[in-house]
Design brief:
It is a single chain. This protein is an alpha/beta fold and about 325 residues long. The protein has a domain at about 5-30 and about 50-110: UDP-N-acetylmuramoyl-L-alanine:D-glutamate ligase, CATH 3.40.1190.30. It contains 9 helices and 13 strands. The chain has helices at about 35-45, 60-70, 115-120, 155-170, 185-195, 210-215, 220-225, 265-280, 285-300; strands at about 5, 10-15, 25-30, 50-55, 75-80, 85-95, 95-105, 140-145, 175, 205, 230-235, 240-245, 250. The strands form 2 sheets. A 9-stranded mixed β-sheet has the order 5-4-1-8-9-10-11-12-13, with helices on both faces. It has a 4-stranded mixed β-sheet with strand order 3-2-6-7. α8 (about 265-280) runs antiparallel to α9 (about 285-300). The longest helix is centred in the middle third of the chain and has 16 residues, at about 155-170.
């Protein structure tokens, strides 16, 4: 079993440097918060698996091929003839403004089931529990989920809750990135679902404007830590990030880089933080690696294409404009 398991919806992405209505060339790739995190972790040398459903179509094959090429375990990827692979389009209607259009309603990614997710995150450790008589692998160290998946459908919602509960019961650390999407559900709907997950979550990732979704408390961090989370990580863009634990708070400033594209920065941050967690590094080092991977992402276009390898992590310590010869 990999060190990290994550699941959700992966989509084909189309990117244009101008308004889509004008036509022209687009760049074809793949996108999805959870698959972005999986690629980020794999590039940093970790064993990671992505679970999800895609259509039995060419876009679905592109997603499978891309993840495999990035050394992400796709053994839990499911093809379906009953639904299509969703896609997402990015265009730039004005300078430095990115517009996102989704085409995902009824997509294969929304058909995730509780049975397949629980089987992946908390497999039986004893042959007698498996009708095939084959011993299954140990559970992953971390299960990473986002608030996007449960917003896709009722079945995906049930799958997320069941997987998180099973992971917690099996002693697996659970990472939750709020990743609120207003086009998928209201803040009230998100609050009702995500708060049900919190008792099973170890690490919470949220932007500073998402905390009210998780709790109504006047001191949201203290409230979240009291629910069972051991760390609450708050991101604030150019202001940096904070990790709150029962022993105190640590702040890490954002790295000074020229921003080319902010899409995917949160996923890059999470991949860096979880990587350092897997390496058993202290909180300061977790934040440092997370802000570094986030900086790599915003410095170039694409959700995941510019994410660093472990050897790349020191590159941003060089002076801007340095030529490495």
């Amino acid at each position: 079993m990999p060190e990290v398991l994550t699941f959700g919806e992966a989509m084909v992405s189309l990117r244009s440097s101008r308004a889509l209505r004008l036509g022209g060339d687009v760049h074809l790739s793949v996108a999805g918060s959870e698959s972005n995190v999986a690629i980020g972790l794999a590039r940093l040398g970790h064993d990671v698996a992505w679970l999800g459903a895609v259509g039995n179509d060419e876009p679905g094959r592109l997603i499978q091929r891309t993840l495999r090429a990035e050394n992400v375990d796709t053994s839990h990827l499911r093809f379906t003839d009953d639904s299509f692979t969703g896609f997402i389009a990015f265009d730039q209607p004005a300078h430095d403004i990115t517009r996102v259009s989704y085409h995902r309603r009824g997509s294969a990614g929304s058909t995730l089931t509780a049975a397949e997710c629980v089987a992946a995150v908390a497999p039986s450790a004893r042959p007698e529990d498996d009708p095939s008589g084959t011993p299954s692998s140990a559970a992953p160290r971390i299960l990473h989920v986002t608030g996007i998946t449960p917003a896709l459908s009722e079945t995906a919602r049930g799958a997320t809750l069941a997987a998180v509960q099973a992971a917690s019961a099996a002693g697996v650390q659970v990472s939750l990135d709020v990743n609120y999407r207003a086009r998928l559900w209201t803040r009230t709907e998100a609050a009702a679902v995500l708060r049900e997950l919190l008792p099973h979550v170890t690490t919470v990732f949220a932007s500073d404007d998402e905390l009210d979704i998780l709790t109504d408390a006047t001191d949201p961090v203290a409230a979240l830590l009291s629910t069972g989370a051991t760390e609450v990580v708050i991101t604030a863009g150019s202001k940096g990030a904070w990790t709150h634990t029962s022993t105190g708070t640590i702040h890490q400033p954002a790295l000074a880089v020229t921003v080319a594209d902010s899409i995917g920065a949160g996923d890059a941050f999470v991949s860096g933080y979880l990587s350092a967690t897997l390496d058993n590094l202290p909180t300061e080092s977790r934040l440092s690696r997370a802000t570094t991977t986030g900086a790599f992402c915003v410095g170039a276009h694409g959700d995941w294409e510019s994410l660093p390898t472990r050897e790349d992590l020191t590159l941003l310590t060089h002076t801007h404009g340095t030529a490495l010869r």
